[in-house]
Amino acid sequence: MSDSEDESPDRQLKLVVMGDGASGKTSLCMRYSQEQFSKQYGQTVGLDFYLKRINLQGSMNVALQVWDIGGQTLGGTMLSNYIFGAHGVLLVYDITNYSSFENLDDWYAAVKKVCGTGPMPHMALVGNKSDLEHMRTVKSDKHQKFAQDHNMMSYFISAKTGDSVSLCFQKIAADILQVKLTKPEVEQHQRVVKAEVIDTNNSYAASSKKQQRGQPKSSLCIIT
Ligand SMILES: Nc1nc2c(ncn2[C@@H]2O[C@H](COP(=O)(O)OP(=O)(O)OP(=O)(O)O)[C@@H](O)[C@H]2O)c(=O)[nH]1
Ligand SMILES: [Mg+2]
């Protein structure tokens, strides 16, 4: 157990992760809390909890209580209870699935309903599966407009590669607690750039003009 785990946290935050089924909420939570990813889809029934202890500015210990809400709960009677008391809400959609983006209106409305005329929690728009950029169906400007219209912070992440996952949570926690992340903190949570060699003959790049012209088979180095 690390020193920070021994100490009781200075602050505890409830973060609720919501959005359509299969948008990658559980994958995001698993990546963040356990550095794991599974290609298999197991639908979340109701909700799951994750706990992550982080440190802000080297001095503030924060316990993040992450509530992973099953996509099927939209319209159900329990959803309001799950949202109640949230400090932050992550509205997650899949950038390759347009309807998961469209349905964010309903997820947003569910949060609004719980808050009534009171203050809204910190809201973050999270476009997941950024590793599937070549299959994107939600244009980036639509994403930005939604974030602006709803006064939300906005992120593109990949639960699969881990890209921007840690930084996203770190920034959300810092924003809620109104502290500024230091440059070293931002760098620390930015994922280390790694090169992955993929076989272009089995990837989307296989249909590129280069291949069509019958050029020799090759491997492509992608920076993720
Ligand atoms: N390529 C890719 N696949 C992902 C990513 N995140 C999740 N997936 C896949 O998408 C599928 C659904 O992921 P889940 O995390 O179970 O989705 P969920 O939002 O929790 O779904 P519900 O529990 O039904 O609400 C799984 O097959 C994951 O492997 C990602 O960043 N990239
Ligand atoms: Mg799930």
Keywords:
224 residues, two-stranded antiparallel sheet, 8 strands, 31% helix, binds magnesium ion, alpha/beta
Question: How would you portray this structure in words?
Answer:
This is Ras-related protein Rab-28. GO terms for molecular function: GTP binding; GTPase activity. Residues 204-218 have a biased composition (Polar residues). Residues 204-224 are annotated as: Disordered. Pfam families: Ras. With 224 residues, the protein is an alpha/beta fold. It is 31% helix and 25% strand. It has 9 helices and 8 strands. It has a 6-stranded mixed sheet, sandwiched between helices. Strands 7-8 form a two-stranded antiparallel sheet. Strand 2 and strand 3 form a beta hairpin. Mean pLDDT is 86; it is low at 193-224. Residues 21-27, 38-39, 41-44, 70-71, 128-129, 131-132, 158-160 line the site of guanosine-5'-triphosphate (GTP).
Summarize the helices and strands and which ones pair or pack:
Layout: H1 3-6, E1 11-18, H2 25-34, E2 47-56, E3 60-69, H3 79-83, E4 88-94, H4 98-102, H5 104-115, E5 122-128, H6 140-149, E6 153-156, H7 165-176, H8 183-189, E7 195-199, H9 209-212, E8 219-223
Parallel strand pairs: 1-3, 1-4, 4-5, 5-6
Antiparallel strand pairs: 2-3, 7-8
The structure holds guanosine-5'-triphosphate and magnesium ion.
Family: Belongs to the small GTPase superfamily. Rab family.
InterPro entries: P-loop_NTPase, Small_GTP-bd, Small_GTPase
Region (Disordered): 204-224
